[in-house]
Amino acid sequence: MENNVLVSLKDVKKSVGSKEIIKGLSFDIHGGEVFGFLGPNGAGKTTTIRMMVGLMSLSSGEITIKGKNIKTQYKEAIANVGAIVENPEMYKFLTGYQNLLHFSRMVKGVSKQRIKEVVALVGLTDRIHEKVKRYSLGMRQRLGIAQALLHSPSVLILDEPTNGLDPAGIREIREYLRDLARKEGIAVIVSSHLLSEMELMCDRIAIIQKGELIGLQATREFVQGAGTKKVRFVVDQPQAAEKAARHHLKEGEIGTGDDYIEMIVEREDIPEITATLVVEGVRIYSIVAETQTLEEKFLEVTGGESVV
Amino acid sequence: MSNFWGLIRNENMKIYRKPGTFVMMGILVALVLITAFLFKNIVDETVTGNWKQKLQTENVQLQKEIKKEAKSNPGIVKYNTEKIEINKYRIKHNYQPIRSVADYLQKSTSMVSIIVILTLIVAGGSVAGEFSAGTIKMLLIRPSSRTMILLSKFIAVILFAIVLLLLNFVASFIIGGLVYGFEGASQPILEYVNGHVETMNVFGEIWKQYGYGCIELIIMATFAFMLSVMFRNSSLAIAASIILSMSGSIIMSFISKYSWSKYVLFANTDLTMYTAGRTPLVKGMTLNFSIAVLLVYFIVFTVLTVVVFKKRDVAA
Ligand SMILES: Nc1ncnc2c1ncn2[C@@H]1O[C@H](COP(=O)(O)OP(=O)(O)OP(=O)(O)O)[C@@H](O)[C@H]1O
Ligand SMILES: [Mg+2]
Description:
The complex is a heterodimer.
Chain A: E1 5-16, E2 19-30, E3 34-38, H1 45-52, E4 60-65, E5 68-69, H2 74-78, E6 81-84, H3 96-104, H4 112-121, H5 137-149, E7 155-159, H6 167-184, E8 187-191, H7 195-201, E9 204-209, E10 212-218, H8 219-224, E11 228-235, H9 238-246, E12 254-256, E13 260-266, H10 270-279, E14 284-290, H11 294-301
Parallel strand pairs in A: 3-8, 3-9, 6-7, 7-8
Antiparallel strand pairs in A: 1-2, 1-4, 4-5, 9-10, 11-13, 11-14, 12-13
Helix pairs in contact in A: 4-5
Chain B: H1 2-16, H2 19-42, H3 51-69, H4 74-93, H5 101-107, H6 112-133, H7 136-140, H8 146-180, E1 189-193, E2 196-200, H9 202-231, H10 234-255, H11 265-268, H12 287-311
Antiparallel strand pairs in B: 1-2
Helix pairs in contact in B: 1-8, 2-8, 3-4, 5-8, 5-9, 6-8, 6-9, 6-10, 8-9, 9-10, 9-12
């Protein structure tokens, strides 16, 4: 996987006027992975995506797609990309089909058959010959995904792709995107506000805030975390258990309840605390290590600020 | 190149799938219809029966007017002299004055100013409309250069203008023919030029006027493209280009007394001022001069438009 870099950002910066909105982003995205782009409102997700697809110029740094520089070899680079930037605005006075026909004429080798396939894939077959102005938000989103998939790109960039979709639609798209990455080996880049969504969909997640990358990890590591977690021991004598656990815990609170004690500990400490409790004669009925959800992690990392 | 053909097809599709486009064509045809009837009621120069006798009587009348008004009204003198000479020519060469479809076709070339406005609307919609609707980012994230996308739009808009010119011609021919009849259409037109009467082929004149119209449309479309790329908002771009083009002649009437005003764009857009019987806006202007000036404007507009369109970040 390491040698299959499809998208590469090297110290990408963007200033508008005197304000620096992207302050040096560097990361690689590989074929076969779903890459999540997470950040609070105004963090710079859309701006970064705009630069990746050549809608905005870079103030400094470099973006390459399949080894082609987006600035100097634009046509070659962008031929590999399918994208939705912010909302998928389509021509409202045309039908969904005419919109797809329009975009198919701008790339090489999209047959009528392929258009039909993609339409079926996003579940618009029944409504594709209706004018887009009569589409619902979710139908527009589906059409947007269809135009991004039309030419079978090897890099798919979707800015908030589940925006407006119903739960069934979200699931369909999620599964389809995962499949695309697994089976076709394409790189899928998504940004989203639905953090739980990202957790289910992405292999790796980059968190950006105020135009800076503040975390980049595999989703699994992110969620489980190598660090501390809250553990609850359900026991018969909470008082005795608390006293025993104190030996191990230099600092921090130990919460007690009618039938449990609770504490924040390092992952590695859990077996030893358990052993001590057993030695002290405390009967343990269950041990629950609360995994942090991505949402909590996200709020923790970004300091809970919602808007920059 | 097949890709470029696709771009032009796309732009055509977007122009002709908009309901407004056919409304515009309908308006044009309606205007042709209305003016055909108005024009018939205002002046009808057809003379029937013993027309040579009638023209002679008219000439005597005109001669009397000249004598009476010679001092007070030099305009009448000039007008009547021309009329008398043309009447004499008709009698001598046996050209009966018949109002026919040819006259109306000639009049309806002034419809070019309406076509300019319709073209400005379509041009503004084609470029600035993509920004207003946000579709510009969908359009630009494809393997076509921004210059080619702009060029395909320009070609589609010029094709649209040509369609309107053809529509105007065909509608004028049919409606004019029904209102005035086709009889006498092949008669030459008579113009009084430099002290003598000249005959001109009607259709030659009409085609010349349509040709001039084409040049005006191209430069105005270029102008609209420039405003569209600068403003990136269709209503603003369309309004600005229409207001500027309509107020052009008013502005010219104020500044035409200065010789530098001949370099102003709007002094040169209406090339029909070089057709027989009309005088250029500013003294000393010639057809070649105007074409040279328009060419310079065309190049400047095009370069500005392309440079701005290529450089600008798209944040729509
Ligand atoms: N054209 C622009 N000119 C000036 N500042 C801009 C421009 N576009 C975006 N910004 C600023 O850049 C920052 C990042 O915006 P961006 O749209 O990339 O955020 P985002 O992460 O996509 O947010 P959201 O989650 O709300 O979509 C914001 O502070 C925004 O105000
Ligand atoms: Mg955004």
